[in-house]
């Protein structure tokens, strides 16, 4: 039998296609895995927000049933409460002082660590440690002792206790925030390591000095990271509470110089038992933070440079 007359082998059967489960079944499985997060978001976030919004239109003292008062809490807040506006001024002053100083120090340290050959891991951990400890009440109390009468600052400079001087108490709180520069420093360091070294080599060949390289290469290439840190630290600064509470013993003194917004909110809600008023303050703070964040995103179009885009 010739080769041409030999029977051809039957073609191998195609692999049976694995049937896909119905779409509803796949979606059901996804919701099962997402259910812990969804349940937590609803019970721990959305429901408390809805209750807080309702309470902001009521007179509620934590002990009796809420009494609907409409917009009275908001009108009282804006027109009849001078301490409210002092808390707003103190908070804005703190944000303007603390956030730029913290980011500037974080960037300076990150630039120093970038070129460090030995011990980078140790120094990075050492500088990051205050970010883990600074928000605790114990560190805030130590900070109060440092800036108190007879404390370290008084012994070194003879300036007296900062915590009892209206012009210096807020600066003491701001310095505690600046001291916690570790988190933005680590983010800056990661961003600096992503900048191509060829850009600096080309700039050096063209005769650009260190300062010109920093302004023309480092800042534009690092601008997305700067923007990210700016947004995060600004949001956190508007919500500062523990340092002001510890340094002023919960009173916001002296002369309401450290009466930050959240501290006054705590005073109205849990000290004076005006929970409806405190809820209204909380919603105003949420709106303000949202507006400030939106403004930062809007203005970022003119100064944040993304390497994947051809323009700013």
TrEMBL record:
Organism this protein belongs to: Streptomyces capitiformicae
Protein name, UniProt field: Sugar ABC transporter permease
Protein's membrane topology: Multi-pass membrane protein
UniProt-listed GO biological process terms: transmembrane transport
Gene3D superfamilies named in the record: MetI-like
Pfam hit, one: BPD_transp_1
SUPFAM superfamilies associated with the record: MalF N-terminal region-like, MetI-like
Spans traversing the lipid bilayer: 30-57, 92-113, 125-147, 167-192, 213-232, 275-297
Major localization listed first in the record, in broad terms: membrane
Entry's family note: Belongs to the binding-protein-dependent transport system permease family.
A cellular component annotation (GO) from this entry: plasma membrane
Keyword Lipoprotein listed: no
UniProt KW keywords: Cell membrane, Membrane, Transmembrane, Transmembrane helix, Transport
Compositional bias ranges of the Low complexity kind: 9-18
């Amino acid at each position: 039998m010739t080769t041409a007359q030999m029977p051809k082998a039957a073609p191998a059967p195609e692999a049976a296609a694995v049937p896909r489960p119905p779409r509803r079944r796949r979606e059901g499985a996804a919701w099962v895995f997402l259910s812990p997060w969804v349940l937590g978001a609803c019970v721990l976030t959305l429901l408390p927000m809805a209750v807080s919004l309702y309470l902001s239109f009521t007179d509620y003292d934590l002990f009796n049933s809420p009494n609907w008062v409409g917009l009275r809490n908001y009108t009282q807040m804006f027109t009849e409460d001078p301490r409210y506006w002092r808390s707003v001024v103190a908070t804005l002053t703190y944000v303007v002082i603390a956030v730029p100083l913290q980011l500037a120090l974080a960037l300076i340290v990150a630039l120093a660590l970038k070129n460090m050959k030995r011990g980078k891991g140790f120094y990075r951990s050492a500088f990051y440690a205050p970010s883990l400890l600074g928000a605790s009440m114990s560190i805030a109390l130590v900070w109060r002792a440092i800036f108190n009468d007879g404390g370290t600052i008084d012994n070194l400079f003879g300036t007296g206790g900062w915590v009892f001087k209206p012009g210096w108490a807020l600066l003491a709180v701001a310095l505690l925030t600046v001291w916690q520069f570790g988190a933005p420093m680590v983010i800056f360091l990661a961003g600096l390591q992503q900048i191509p070294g060829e850009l600096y080599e080309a700039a050096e060949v063209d005769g650009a000095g260190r300062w010109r390289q920093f302004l023309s290469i480092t800042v534009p290439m690092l601008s997305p990271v700067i923007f990210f840190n700016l947004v995060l630290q600004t949001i956190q600064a508007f919500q500062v509470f523990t340092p002001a509470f510890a340094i002023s013993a919960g009173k916001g003194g002296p002369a309401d110089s450290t009466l930050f917004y959240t501290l006054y909110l705590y005073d109205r809600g849990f000290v004076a038992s005006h929970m409806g008023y405190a809820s209204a303050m909380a919603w105003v703070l949420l709106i303000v933070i949202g507006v400030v964040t939106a403004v930062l995103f809007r203005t970022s179009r003119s100064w944040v440079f993304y390497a994947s885009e051809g323009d700013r």
